[in-house]
Each structure stands twice: as structure tokens, then as C-alpha cells.
Amino acid sequence: MKLFFALILLGIATLTQTVQAQQEPVDNIRPATRSVDVNRIIKAFSAKETEFRQALNNYAFRRDASVQQIGMGGQVVGEYRRVSNFVFDDRANRFEKITYFPASTLTELQITAEDIEDLGGVQPFALEASKIDQYNFSFLGSEHIDELDTYVFDVQPKVLPKKVSERFFQGRIWVDDRDLQIVKVRGKGVPEGKQRFPVFETYRQQIDGHYWFPVYTYADDTLLFPEGAIRVRMLVRYTDFQRFSSRVKITEADEPVPEPPPKKP
């Protein structure tokens, strides 16, 4: 996200420290009580993440995303809203059909191409399957969340790219100790460059009895720009996952559509 105008806010440092202190998450991570084969776990959930992303090519879903700017009194002073349906073609290309997209009322913030890319990549899926080998994983222990026992890892890119358009995840992931699939993530998209991106949490849910799909992403963070700070609240819901067997073919507008052959008498 980019800042539109310079802000002159009285006591901005105090405000920022207060908001961040209120937002600091509390984890109940326990050291491992038994021997854990960390390399096996990483290899397993990496393979599951790759398998999941391939399986997603057979699913359509709906995404409802809103980004709000929060004023000094906690009120919403601007909003960006985008509701879309997604399908995939035979080559795993994602196609978005926007169903609701009112004019943005954000005044100081600008939604960038990197923000849109994070909505479709880093935030719901965290670890891009093709980039998993480009991350370092640090095992922290285990934690019980939402009736699940999980392994907890800190994750960061081995090399941070210089281009902001090359999106990576940096943060923490929770891996179900039975299915060995990612069920929760918390972190942000990097690199930032001159932009700023909020720390978010994404929760997954077992939709089809096999894969854990992202269903909910939330962020409430203060973005620190050289000109000042802006509090941002983000809510993204992923719903209506439907498995389909048909394939989508995208054609040019002027490309003729072949007529079906006549039926034989």
C-alpha cells in the first residue's frame, strides 16, 4: 500500500506504540516433549502444499475483500471493496470475474498491484508451492489451536528479492500434526520497498475432507510511512468452494467459434 498524502498527527509515535501493543498476538507454543523429525515434517507439508495448489485448479470459489482506513477515534474513514469469483483453466491460470467493485473511498492510501497480488497469493496460501525451496524454516514447538494439535514454524525467504513485485511470505505457520497441512498462518508479504503491508492472519478449514482451504484472512495493523502512520483493517473471506470437471477456454473476442458438426440422419 502506498501513502497518498503526508500526515501531520499529534503524538503519532505514542499512538503507534499503543495500537501495536494492543495487537501483539499471544501464542502458547510448547517445546517439543518428544523427538520430532523436523525435516520430515517440512518435506511432508511442502509436498501437501504443492498437491493442494494443483488440486485447487479444479475448484471455483468466491473472494470478498475489504480494506478499511481507521481514523483516530476508531471509526472507518475510507474503504476499498472487491468481490470476485475465480476459476482456473487447463494451464492453471487464474481468472477473476469481479461481481462487486464500488469506487474506493480511501483518502490517504492507494491499493497497489502488489496488494492485489497478495490477496490472491501470499495471504490465502502463504507459501507458493514453486518457491518452497527458497525459504528457511525454524521449528519452534507445538501449540493446540481450535481443537487441533499443530507444529509451529517461523518462515522467512532465504534471499529477499529487490523487486517488490516478487512476492514472498515472512512470518509464522501452524501445521496440523496429523494431516501435515498448513492450517493457519500469520505474517506479511515481502519485500516492501517504499510500500507498507499489514501483518495478517489466515485460517484454513477442511472443505472437502482432504485439503485445508483458506476461508478467512484478517489484519488490523498500523502502517508506518516516513510521512506518518495509518491504521488499516482488512477482512477477506473465501467461500463457495465448488469442485468442477469442465474446463475454461479463453478466446480472443474476434476469434471465430467453430460450429458443431451436423448430426447424421
A few lines on this structure:
This protein has 265 residues and is an alpha+beta fold.
Description:
There is one protein chain. The chain is α+β, with helices and mostly antiparallel strands. Helix content is 16%, strand content 42%. The protein contains four helices and twelve strands; from the N terminus they run βααββββααβββββββ. It has helices at 12-23, 38-55, 113-120, 122-125; strands spanning 2-3, 59-70, 76-88, 94-100, 109-110, 135-145, 148-157, 168-176, 182-190, 200-206, 212-225, 228-243. A ten-stranded antiparallel sheet has the order 4-3-2-12-11-10-9-8-7-6. A hairpin with a 5-residue loop joins strand 10 and strand 11. It is globular. 25% of the residues are buried.
Termini separation (Å)? 63 Å
Mean pLDDT: 84
- Sequence of secondary-structure elements: EHHEEEEHHEEEEEEE
What class would the helix/strand composition place it in?
Answer: alpha+beta
Identify the strand order in the major beta sheet: 4-3-2-12-11-10-9-8-7-6
The major sheet is characterized as: 10 strands, antiparallel
- The total of beta strands comes to 12
**Percent of residues in helical segments?**
10-25%
- Uncertain parts: 5-23, 250-255
Calculate Rg over CA atoms.
21 Å
Number of separate helices: 4
Keywords:
10-stranded antiparallel β-sheet, 265 residues, globular, 16% helix, alpha+beta, two-stranded antiparallel sheet
Task: Summarize the SSE layout with pairings.
Blueprint (H helix, E strand, L loop, with lengths): L1 E2 L8 H12 L14 H18 L3 E12 L5 E13 L5 E7 L8 E2 L2 H8 L1 H4 L9 E11 L2 E10 L10 E9 L5 E9 L9 E7 L5 E14 L2 E16 L22
Antiparallel strand pairs: 1-5, 2-3, 2-12, 3-4, 6-7, 7-8, 8-9, 9-10, 10-11, 11-12
